Amino acid sequence: MAHVRKVIYPPRADGSRKTSWRATWAGPDGDRQSKTFETQRDAKAWLVSVASGLVGGSSQMTVVQMAEEHIAYFHGLVRSGDRRATTVNGYQSILDTHVKPHLIAKKRLSELRAPMIQGLLDDIVKQTGSTSTARRVRRSFVQWCRFAVRRGWLLANPAQACAVDGAASTPEEEPFELPPKQHLSAIVAAAAQGDHPERDTAVVRILMLGGLRSSELLGLADEAAVLKPIGGRLKVRERLEYQHKTLDPPKTGKGRRDVPIGKETSLAIRAWRLKRGGVRPFSHINGKREKVVATGRLFPNPATGSDVWGYHDFIRDCWMPLMRRAGLVVMVPDSKGKNRPQAAFKPHMLRHVAVSLWLAQRPQPTPKKVQELVGHATLKMTMDTYGHLWRDEDEDDAIAQASERIISQVNV
Question: Which residues make Cβ contacts (< 8 Å) with residue 367, sequence separation at least 6?
Fold first, then answer.
């Protein structure tokens, strides 16, 4: 409860006493806060401004507006090269998916309290069963409210007092399901049947056999494909940042790697280069907002013959036609009931296919080697993603049979 009380200090040397008025209130996080004033009128006026949310001049600002202001600010950091676009994309996804549909979205900052945010987190756990999702939402709220405190829109950070109970890690999820082999065969065949067979064949082979991310494929410099008579290597040194169409370095040091390719993939890249012709450098604004001259890309923008090929253009002009020819596009109604084409899976699935093909070999590559090839930051990430693929049914059967033999030899 907010209140104002008079404070009388110890007498001075001349016998006089100094007095002041202390305004005390509960902050948005529930902690008691206070501020001292010379007059009772100033102290009461301050409490009125706190109660109405006028401290930062934002009594009408809502939770969604606060988040959008932070996201807009973060976009500036991305353009300056100080932060990654994947982070701001994550903030936007959380805002759109979890915050906007909830009642908390329209709450004004003057009304925002820790129990409201905690209620959102509890609802997310109930609805999705995912504590990791709730933790991501909490982290976003902490950053949004911290930003609002710096701007003077909040007096304290109410999200800091919230928590998500449960184990630190989420329950084991169902492993992703790889496409049937006939679907993969259909994609390989469809790549050779379209209007751009050389390009599409090279794209499919690099994704399906090299395990590159789509961003790495589109960011690959032409000179990064080093070909030999019996194969070659793809030197992953750059990636395309989708939203701002900048060429950025890999997210982590492990993302910088050399990926071996086989003879057929090497031949496919050679055929594409012959069909495409030479590439030329182009003026480019990189992730640090610096104007640089970039070398030609292996898959340049088809519209210009240079520059970068944007992800959405790649999906529209290459991936979707390819999947249609393979018979892997279905019509799915959107939120307005209008049918929209949807591919059976995204290009990223071919990265998983590549790992499954590596692990189908005998002897299998070690988890450390797979981590190196896919460019994961940690071995844990590799095992969390692909650990279920490290299976050898013959070895499993041998273990089971050996156990039975041992127990059968025990004298009862």
Answer: 379, 382, 383, 387, 390
pLDDT at residue 56, as a whole number: 43
Residue 302: the pLDDT is 94
Q: With the C-alpha atoms ordered 333, 335, 341, 343, is the resulting torsion angle positive or negative?
A: negative
The total of structural domains in the chain comes to: 3
Average pLDDT, the chain: 85
Gyration radius of the chain's alpha carbons:
29
**Most confident range, picked from 6-15, 56-65, 205-214:** 205-214
Q: Which residues pair with 291 in a beta bridge?
A: 285
Q: Are residues 120 and 258 in the same domain?
A: no
What is the distance between the alpha carbons of residues 49 and 85, in angstroms, rounded to a whole number?
37
Let me know whether 157 and 96 are in one domain.
Answer: yes
C-alpha distances in angstroms, 358 versus 208, 311, 375? 11, 27, 15
Binned at pLDDT 50, 70 and 90, residue 360 comes out as confident
Give dist(CA 275, CA 205) in Å, integer: 17
Report in angstroms the alpha-carbon separations of 342 from 190, 237, 327, 329, 346: 17, 31, 11, 5, 9
- Whether the CB-CB separation of 212 and 206 falls below 8 Å is answered with yes
3-state SS class at 297: strand
Assign residue 114 the CATH number of its domain.
1.10.150.130
26 Rama class: left (phi>0) / alpha (psi -120 to 50) / beta? beta
14: containing domain: 3-52
76-119 residue pLDDT tens: 887 776 777 778 888 998 999 999 999 999 999 888 889 999 99
Q: Do 32 and 91 share a domain, yes or no?
A: no
